[in-house]
Amino acid sequence: xxxxxxxxxxxxxxxxxxxxxxxxxxxxxxxxxxxxxxxxxxxxxxxxxxxxxxxxxxxxxxxxxxxxxxxxxxxxxxxxxxxxxxxxxxxxxxxxxxxxxxxxxxxxxxxxxxxxxxxxxxxxxxxxx
Length: 129
Hints:
This protein has helices spanning 16-26, 71-80, and strands at 9-13, 30-34, 37-41, 47-52, 62-68, 100-101, 109-113, 119-124. It is α/β, with parallel strands linked by helices. The longest helix is centred in the first third of the chain and has 11 residues, at 16-26. The two termini are 27 Å apart.
């Protein structure tokens, strides 16, 4: 039924102009506004929709993952653009002082948030690209 449907995912934000600046300028993605919503074009060709929600609550899980060849290099580049990385000191996915998880469980990954507080990541691994 949906085999040929061009499905897309979406998430809420509390400020479309801030989201447009972050996804477009900070992350360098192609973004457009359509009927008050932000259409984000990913490098894979997929599209994600960010829609305004006045009573927005940030997702408590990762909503968008960006596969990269080198997480450490991506973290440095994003920090130069003002991105702050999350620090997790407890649980199975603890991060180091750079905000990078390098443990035995899971891939090398670093988490950061968009201006609305939604969690994103840069993740290293051949099976994810």
